[in-house]
Structures are given as C-alpha cells and as structure tokens.
Design goal:
InterPro entries: DUF6022 (IPR046064). Pfam families: DUF6022. By secondary structure, the chain is α+β, with helices and mostly antiparallel strands. It has helices spanning 7-12, 19-40, 42-52, 55-74, 149-159, 161-165, 169-181, and strands at 77-79, 91-94, 102-112, 117-128, 140-144. The protein has one domain (7-181). Strands 1, 2, 3, 4 and 5 form a five-stranded antiparallel beta sheet that branches. A hairpin with a 4-residue loop joins β3 and β4 (117-128).
Amino acid sequence: MNKYDSLRDYLQDNSNIDIYIVATFINTYIQQNWKVAFDQNQDQLLNAYRQAGDKAYGTYLNLLFLSINKELKEAGIQSDTRLPGNLNISREWGNTEDYTDQERWMWSTLTSNKENKQIGTIVTKVYHDHTQLRVPQPPQVFAILESSQEDIVEALSKMSNHFKQSREFQVEYADYMKNNRS
C-alpha cells in the first residue's frame, strides 16, 4: 500500500489512533483489492451464489476484509464484530423495480487496545445486485465517532434518509419468512 506496508506502520506516523486514519487506510486497501478479490475468487463466489444466493456476497466480503481484520489486530485495534460488520443489524435499500442496484450499510465499533477505549465506528457501504452475482462498485467505508448502537443508528439516520427509512436486516428477514409461510 503506497508508503506503508501495514496499518501499524500507518498509525506510527500519527500521534494517536484515529478512526478517520483507520478509515482512510481501509478505503485505500479496498480500492486496490476489491476487484482482484472478486475476480480471483469468481468460481467460488459463483458456486456460492448458485447454492445460497445473496449469501455469496458475505463470502466475498469475508475474503476482501480478511487482510483488513488481520491488520487491525496487528495494530492493536479490536472490533466488536469483524469488519465489514454485523449483517443482522445492517440496513439495505435500493432499486425496488428490478433489484439490480442495492446498497447495504454495516458497521463495526473499534477499540484501541493500547488506550483501552473505543475510538469510533467504521461504516461499510456494500453495493450489490439481487438478480445476479455482481458488485457494481467497490465497497466504501467512512468513520463516525459514535460507538453505542443507539448513537450509531441516530448518526447514520441523520446522514441518510434511506438508512433512516430502512429496517434492520433481522427485522426485515423475520417479516419475509413470516409472510412466505402463509
């Protein structure tokens, strides 16, 4: 990655661990690797998509974020849930006519082991298609200082009306299952 080989090196050039610096590092990594991770694992991802549909995007994100999660650990940063975040509390919206342009926001709160305090939250935007295995653009991350669930949801709701109007995945999925049992 450019001048730095690791997140730890990146952070050493800065006086303290800052959530915005971490987000910049992650975005740089994603920009350099999102397409490679998809292309190099396309057979595995297509097989996962044929067997389980949209769960293939979870496989893709696990592959893409594997190195990032290792970098966080080596830099002394702990996440409350592995990046890109907890699917159950994520929110999704997008094109409801043909479902080809969807956006999901997931997040993880980070804690500095050195300072033993929460430094903020990394929010990941994931773009995807429900009609075929396709990632139309790279995931993007941004940082917010909020770290409690309630404060995170409030901050993201202020940033995006789509987010505010969407329901948590676990709620959306429970309703979907309930309606399809009938």
